Each structure stands twice: as structure tokens, then as C-alpha cells.
Amino acid sequence: MISSSSSATRSGKNRNVFPKVKEYVSTRTGKKMAEAGKKVVESKVGAVKKHNEKDEEHKKLLEVLGKMVGKNENDSGSENPLDLFLKIGLDEKTAKNTLANNKVTANLTAIIHEAAVTDGCDRTVGNLLYMAATKFPSNALVHRPALLKYVISLKIKTPAQLEAAFSFLDATASDNLKVNDFEAACGVGVEVSKEDIESAVNEIFEENEAVILEQRYRTNVGELFGYVRKKQPWADPKIVKQLIDAKLYALLGERTAADNEKPVKKKKEKAVKVEDKATVEETVEPSEEETNPFLIFPSPEENFKVHTEIYFSDRPVLRACNSKEVLEKHLKVTGGKVFTRFPPEPNGYLHIGHAKAMFVDFGLAKERGGCCYLRYDDTNPEAEKKEYIDHIEEIVRWMGWEPFKITYTSDYFQELYELAVELIRRGHAYVDHQTPEEIKEYREKKMNSPWRDRPIEESLKLFDDMKRGVIDEGKATLRMKQDMQSNNFNMYDLIAYRIKFTPHPHAGDKWCIYPSYDYSHCIVDSLENITHSLCTLEFETRRASYYWLLDVLGLYQPYVWEYSRLNVTNTVMSKRKLNRLVTEKWVDGWDDPRLMTLSGLRRRGVTATSINSFVRGIGITRSDGSLIRLDRLEYHIREELNRTAPRTMVVLNPLKVVITNMEASSVTYSDAKKWPDAPVNDASSFYKVPFSKVLYIEHSDFRLKDSKDYYGLAPGKSVLLRYAFPIKCTEVILGDDNETVLEIRAEYDPLKKTKPKGVLHWVAESAPGVDPLKIKVRLFDKLFISENPAELDGWLGDLNPESKVVISEAYAVPSLRDATIGDRFQFERLGYFAVDKDSTPEKLVFNRTVTLRDTYGKAGK
């Protein structure tokens, strides 16, 4: 279970003191050395003196460190990075731009010291050092000092050679460097004479003379460079440029005025119209990343590269990566497959943001033929309920995903405890007695806990007391001993364990100490051999803590990658705000159709397919802080329901129409289409609609005053009833106020001779005196008025009072009587609706999923 830690064993070994100090010198110089202070350097000198007095190489290091201490005394230990960059020949603009990038600044500063050119160097060498700072492969940092010797000695002196070196070292990674192969790959020792370069240039000009004469000085010189480089990859680029320029001048002579004119862009000729009724649309092929958004993730075999660099205030930089031995052991267990996990906390209902997480975690595993765990991150027994656990499993499957295995963090409580004990033994954790308020204050002030340096044996005993329930809740925690002076707040001695005398929903009452997320998450990832640990960007600052803990315990390290959260307009996504909406009865439960919870969306009638299509369309990016418009989601919902929802007719606000030229007992039936392109010979694609003396249209489809742009019914005007006959308004019955329309009298055209422009949906009595089928309809709209209510202090005051409108007495065609819960329909001219779970045999209830209007599709997908 517990493997030995390289970092733990290293600290007590005499032979390894020097490498630590050496790395310290190379990475903590300049400004960072000043921050570390004179005492830290002197302590390192003392360590070297104590253990290595007779070692000649160590004596040299002592001299270097001594000079640095002296420098500290003389100039406060501060070296201006800008001065260093200018000394190596960078121009002022490049040097200042470099300072804007902290990572490149740190890399270049370290390289200048490693190469021992703090007093300056040739500009050519300086440019190569800059290339090394920006492009050196992170998985081969162990070989950087060797490469710098080649650069300083001018054995590698061109960008082409350096690029070749990067490629070779990237493939070599941390393996032993094969010097002969390396030198051959980089052209070390290869001298290309001016005559050889001239011969290559002449050859290129002969091959391309016709094109050069035509284009003259507009010739792409970069292409000519590329041709020469293929023939002579190690040629000096300065000499190549001189010879190409000279050859161009010899061939073309002096530049003319025409050579200096900007080329005139030719107008695109209009395509000749094809005399054919069929129009040919130009199709834009989607990019490879749009087709497969998972291409950005590396394969499990590549997990030996450096994941990240963790900078400390008091020790060398940690370059987190797996050794080849650890990776091989991992690959043997997994068979080289991708293993991911979807790790929700069972303390609430999943929302649409979790749909993106599922798409990323389950989707990557599915695309690579791998496995995805559903792992409940159940480390807080006070907030977790079986209701949430059951909901999560059910909704994951509804979304179309099948877990490889369902696990709980609590399944690993024993292993986590044993590793915590080992963490204490290795000096990387301690039992603390500060209150939460004191911890917060000390962390803000970057102050060590008074108990941080207590003896290891004391912490071991106290941690055992915590486990046995001897210490009261809130009186002790186990904290990781990380780096209280770090620039990363998530390295300030995070809590690993706390006491809670609360039974656990899954583990029962066996434990009274529970691990924190920061402690347990990375370890369980490692224990489950996760290849890709994928999470949202707010966890990016926790990456240092994640890898630090796995490194000090000597455990396998998964590949961590963060992506942007999914934020949708006109809603809130935080569990705290969602919980308040539910508990304070602002909405009707976790599955209220106005919420962006997945159960709420499902109840509203949204399909899992459309949600996954929406998430895929957004992509897996790291651009954070953006809001996705709600109408973009609605576009994907409409696209899906337009293909799958049968059409039917419902009248929401009925207005009675009496057909005066029809017998009271007469009822005829028309065939109505369930689908726009319903084949005539397929009876299942049609439903019967009764047409009788009394029928109903929408109140909004009648006006007392007609207008040119109005296609509804008006006095003396005709409209076509969908699938039936034209009718003409002949009389209007008004109420006592002489304004309210109570009833319409109309005549129908049984021969369909009239051809009105307006087409209305309608519902008729199926028998004389029998009302149409009555249904309840809920019209849902945006829950909040503002696009981003979460940023408002009074966000509850932004709730949309019109987000839910209930119509208790709508009329529907008889065929809807057989609809069951979850069935989806398009109510013609109204929108898409789904049967709600509140339906009874006496009365169906429909929720509006989305309107027919599509603002996103019109604006552009």
C-alpha cells in the first residue's frame, strides 16, 4: 500500500545534500533568493560544511554560496531580472515583455545562472538561452544543464540545432542521455562552409528562377530559406540570408517603383448561376477538434512528463512527474486504458454544469475505449443524504452514461488513514489545536501554527486519540505541513482530517474522523489508477497541493487538467443558492422545471441528447468567466424536439366559435399530421380531429379591427382552420361592457373554394354539448430577469414574477387523452410541451419545454 518516498528518504542521506543545494542555487536566485533571505542560504552552507568538508566539488559550491551571501549583504540579495536579460543581449522590448510572463521570467533567470552568464554573454548565445527558457521540454529538465554547456561552448550555435536538441530531449525525457546520438541529431561538430551554403542557394534559385522572375521582390524569402534548410539544416542563418539577398540582387537588379507597390487584390468572380432548380450549398467541414473534442488529452503512456512545477519558499522547485518504473506499474494494472472518474458530492441535485463534467469524464473514457468511475466524494457526513446518492446514480444513467464501477471515497477510509499516519511519520503532517478562526487568521498572515513543529511521535499519538474519539470535536485537526510562505494560498498547511461525531451515510459509525477533500481526492485518484483527473478551473490553484501530497507519499500521479465551468444566463448554479431557492420555497423543489438542475430540465421535457449536444457544441476549453446564453441551449432543445415530438393542437385561451351553416348534430373528422413530412400511406403518422358546430380558437387570434399585417380572424374576414375548412366571421357577440368578445359566429366553406392567408389551430367539441378535453398547462420562462443574477447582492429580488404562468382550463384534441408522463409534443403554433408527473387520470398537466421562437439560430450557431 505505502511506497517509499524519494523526497522523504532524500532529506536524511548525506550523499543527497549537495544536489538539493545545487538545485536551490539554480532555481531560487535573483528576486526569489532575496525573499528567501540570508539565513536560508547560510543554513545550506552549514549543511554542506557539516557533511562534505573534503569533497572538492562541494567546496566549489561553498564558494558560490558564500559569494551569494556576500552579495546579499551588499545589495540586499536582489538582482534585477531586467538587467540580467539585457546583459545577455535581449533588446529592451523583448526583455520587458518577458517580465510580464512569470513562468518565462523564472525559467530564463534560472537558465542564466545555470549557464553562469550573469555577467553577460554574446547576443547569439543570449537568444539561444531565451529559446531554451520558452521551449525546453518540461519532461527533460534533468538534461537542461548539459544542453546549456553545448550552447555556451557554441557546439550548438543555431536555432535549427537547438530545435533539434529539444525534439531529441523530449523523446529522451528523464532517461540517460546518449551523447553520441544527441550530437548527431543536433549537428554538433558539423561545419557547413560558405561554399556549401552558396551551392545550396544556387541550386534553389535554378529550380525556382521562373517564379522568382515573375514575382521579383515579392518572392517569399521565407520559402527560399526553408528550401536551403532542407538541404543544409545546420547552415548559419546569417550567411544564408546574405547569400539569398545577394542572389536576388544579381538576378533582379535594383528595386523598381513597381516592386514597392502593394499588389492589387483581384476581385472574386461571381459564380455562374446553374440553371437548375436544385441549389447547391457550400458545406464547411468541421475541424478535427469540433468532431472530436477529446484530442487535446494525452495518452496514458505519455504520463511520465512533468505535470507542473511547484515553487517553494524554502526548498527546490518540485517538478511533479511519474518515474518510468511507477508509470510501468500503473500501465500494467490498467492495461494502458484510459481511466477517468466523475466525482460528485452527494449533498444536492446535479445541475447542467455537472452535465458538462459527465461529458468530459465519461466522454473521454468512451472515446478512448476506457473506463469511468462514478465516485461519490462523501467526506462530509453532515451534508450527505441517501436521497442525493440515489438521484445522482439515476440521473447519470438518464444522461446516457454507464459507470465502469460505482465507488465511494469512504470505501478508502482505512487506506487514507494509514497514509495519513505515514505522512506524519515522514514529517509532512502535524496535529493542530487552533480554532477555525485562528487558522484563518494565521493563514492570512502567513504565520506558522504554534504546534507546527511538535515532535512526530506526539502527533502520531494525538492522531490516534482523534481516531479513538478521545479528543472533542473542534479541539484538534490534522494539517499537512506544506509551505506557509508560498504564493499559493492552497499550500498553507491545508487540513487533512477533522473530528466529527456524526454517523456516515455509507460507512456507518465506524469513524469519528473524516478526511478533507484536499487530502482524499488526489489519493483516491491514485489508488483507483485514474489516468486523467479532470476538473473545473477553480481547482487549478489546488494542483500544487494535489501533486505535493502524492509526491511526498511516493504515489502514482494522474494527469490533471482543468476546463472552464459551464455558466448559463438567467439562472444560478451554486449549490448554496439552489438550496436556498428550494428550502425557502421560491421554487417547487429540486426538480422545478425552471431550475437548471438536470431533474428540473428532464421534468420540463428537455432530453438528455439535447443537453449532451449543447455541451459538445460549447467544447472543452479553458476560457473562464464567460456566460453561455440560454437561447443557445434552447436551440439544441428545439433541434431535438423538432425531430422527435409529434404535432398536436391545443388552445390555451379558448374563444368560442359557432358555425352557423352546420347542423348541430353534425361531426366530421379530418386527418391531422403528426409530422410535417408524414407519408400519405402511413396511417400511424396521422391522428383524427373532430370538426363540429362548436369549436374554439385562441383569443389572441381574433381582433375587432383588421389590419394588413394581421392574419388572424376579424369581422367579415376568412381564415383557414388547420387540416379542416376555411371559416368567415359573420357576427361578434360582445359582453355588457360592449368590448369583451364572448363568442364568434361564422360560416364555413365545405368546398374550400376560398383561399385565405391566415391559418389557425383550433379544437372542436367531439359531440354536441360535450366540451373538448380539458388540460392544465404551465408556461415556464426564465427564472431570473438579469443575465447574471449570481453577481447581484439582492439576487432573490431579481426573480422573474412571470417565470411560471398556469392555465387551468386549456382545450386539447381528443387524441391527447392517452398521453403518459414524459411524453413530448409540439403544440402547433405554441411550442414544445411535456406531460408532467402531477397529471391524474382526470386531468393531464403539461409543462412548456421551449417556445417555437429561435433567436439563437437566427443570430448564428
TrEMBL record:
Keyword set for this entry?
Aminoacyl-tRNA synthetase, ATP-binding, Ligase, Nucleotide-binding, Protein biosynthesis
What the record says about family reads: Belongs to the class-I aminoacyl-tRNA synthetase family.
**For this UniProt entry, what's an example GO CC term?**
cytosol
- What EC number(s) are associated with this protein in UniProt? 6.1.1.18
Where in this chain does the record put each Glutamyl/glutaminyl-tRNA synthetase class Ib catalytic domain?
A: 337-642
Organism the protein comes from: Fraxinus pennsylvanica
Q: Which Pfam families match?
A: tRNA-synt_1c (PF00749), tRNA-synt_1c_C (PF03950), tRNA-synt_1c_C2 (PF20974), tRNA_synt_1c_R1 (PF04558), tRNA_synt_1c_R2 (PF04557)
Name assigned to this protein: glutamine--tRNA ligase
